Amino acid sequence: MSTTTQTPTQPAGRRRSGPASPSLVQSIGLVAEREVKMRLRSKTFLISTGILLLVILAGIVVGGFLAKNTASETTKIAVVGSAGSSLIEGKAFDITEVANIAAAEELVKSGEVEAAIAPATDDNPTGVQVLFDTEASNTLIMQLSAQPQVTVLTPGDSGSAGFLLYIVSLGFGLVFFVSATTFGASIAQSVVEEKQTRVVEILMSAIPVKALLAGKVLGNSILAFAQILAIAALSVIGLTVTGQTDLLAGLGTPVVWFVIFFVLGFILLAALFAAAGSLVSRQEDIGSTTTPITMLIMIPYFAVIFFNDNPLVMTIMSYVPFSAAVGMPVRLFVGSAQWWEPILSLLVLAATAAFVIWIGSRIYENSLLKMGGRVKISEALKA
Amino acid sequence: MLELSHIDKSYGDRKVLDDVSFQVAPGRMTGFVGGNGAGKTTTMRILLGVLAANTGTVTLDGTPLTPEDRRRFGYMPEERGLYPKMRVEEQLVYLARLHGFTTHAAKHNAGELLERLGLGERRNDALESLSLGNQQRAQIAAALVHDPDVLVLDEPFSGLDPMAVDVVVGVLSEFAASGAPVLFSSHQLDIVERLCDDLVIIAAGTIRASGSRDALREAHAGNRYELLTSADTGWLRERAGISVVDFDGGYALFDADDAAAAQAVLREALTHGDVASFSPLRPTLAQIFKEVIQ
What we know:
The structure holds 2 protein chains of 2 kinds.
Chain A: H1 24-41, H2 43-70, E1 75-80, H3 85-88, E2 93-98, H4 101-110, E3 115-119, E4 128-132, H5 138-144, H6 159-196, H7 199-206, H8 209-241, H9 245-278, H10 286-307, H11 311-317, H12 324-334, H13 341-367, H14 377-382
Parallel strand pairs in A: 1-2, 1-3
Antiparallel strand pairs in A: 3-4
Helix pairs in contact in A: 1-8, 2-8, 6-8, 6-9, 6-10, 6-12, 8-9, 9-10, 9-12, 9-13, 10-11, 11-12, 12-13
Chain B: E1 2-11, E2 14-24, E3 29-34, H1 40-48, E4 55-60, E5 63-64, H2 67-70, E6 73-76, H3 88-98, H4 103-116, H5 132-144, E7 150-154, H6 162-177, E8 182-185, H7 189-195, E9 198-203, E10 206-212, H8 213-220, E11 224-229, E12 242-248, E13 251-256, H9 259-272, E14 275-280, H10 285-292
Parallel strand pairs in B: 3-8, 3-9, 6-7, 7-8
Antiparallel strand pairs in B: 1-2, 1-4, 4-5, 9-10, 11-13, 11-14, 12-13
Helix pairs in contact in B: 3-4
């Protein structure tokens, strides 16, 4: 080899003549940058993100609509004299007192009030009649009806609170499930793509395998976090605009915890997906190794649908690393978790994530160059 | 000087490389020839550090290769490896940046290489939209884009049409001429014969021959001669120390016991008529190859 010094642009006298290799951090950054760039260019990704955001938005709007319906607006009625005072007492009516039936009829017809209560003209046991303009309102009649005392001996959850809990649990479950599977699958695909096209050999000759794995996980994680943050922001703005500030106040803390749990939980899953991808050599085979992981993500999703009102199951879920991201925020929303519980659960998750990343990177490093059939996990761990 | 010494590699019980040693000299194109499964790709992967050898060393200028040295290698893997959906220039820039080039320098290198390899107009096309031959050119560009110190190319000419082969040969020769060791494998022996300065022949995991092409041809040159004259060459059969292999009017192919006997044939041929040509028959690479892998 010639020992003359050359300028880097000249292809001669070459040893160590090129630029210094990028640092580990720079390499990771470059890999992550490519992942993000390629993902953002993919129409599939943009469309699926759009759909997910739309579904969330629709959920909030529908939720707001339902909330409005149950909160009854004050109904305007006219009352002739003291007619039916026992029926309207303590109920939310906007009452206009009038002197006689004629005045009441006028108000009803003009639409200024929805109905008028006047003394009965027949021998009705309530002693009052209700005047409507064109059509009788059953809701109003129900409101005016006297009801017997109701005592429930073994009270369960009240219907509307149960429904809200269900929607909130489903929301966390859905967001976690969709984000984790989309980005997890894209990591696995990107790993297999590099393996299948053998570009990995070129990459490995340029940068350390660890940088490649870390960059891939980082790039996809950034996208996943951006998506989660977008969803969180959309939820907060949506809830504020639709006036569901009570729900927002209750959801605030759980949402913050959800984002924190998601960050760690996703990194754990990303390492698993990368390892799963590295075990196969062709896109067609990817399902065989990623399915078990997808199952792991589906468990919390279905568990919250079926067991969101079962405190024991939810407590267990909030500590199991794969479902903590969904279980703990739901428990915080319900208010059944102590202040230290999310922190403990987070530590469990962090420890698991560290362990899984270690295992995952080992599998990844050992399987990248093994072509052909599926690499056995025992083989990938051993080498 | 890139040097492999006593490399052994086994997969389980199967020994794929057995005491492999050879050198790749700077400024020279070294052809690496062997049949399917002979161990070429494994050797190249070990060179690149993509695969670890069981025993043996790889040195560059006498010092063991470090990962840092290897990053200054240009490598073209056996099965082509680039991102199918990425634009050609974009991935070259990416690869150069992974090697530490600034975006600006990376773009400069990529653009220049693509022009030289005739891909200038396709620089913004996705790799998968290119023909196989053009993908191959892009692959070669990928091996060169970071201006490597050493080039290791696994089958760089497979799938190229003759014009593309010439373009690539031109680029590689210039690269070698600038003082870099270049190792390339090929099963197209005619191209190797035309292109390489040095040769390494591998079979069943062992090196069967290595050295300069001319020395190898010299070493494997037999005692066979070719004679073309205006007269009939039937008299050759009667001569002592000569055995005729082929014979057709004024043309004769014969083996001589020694050089003196061959020279005697030439002198006699001149007495019979005009000699158009008389030459010792140099073996082609294909012949040497067949001989040494036996």
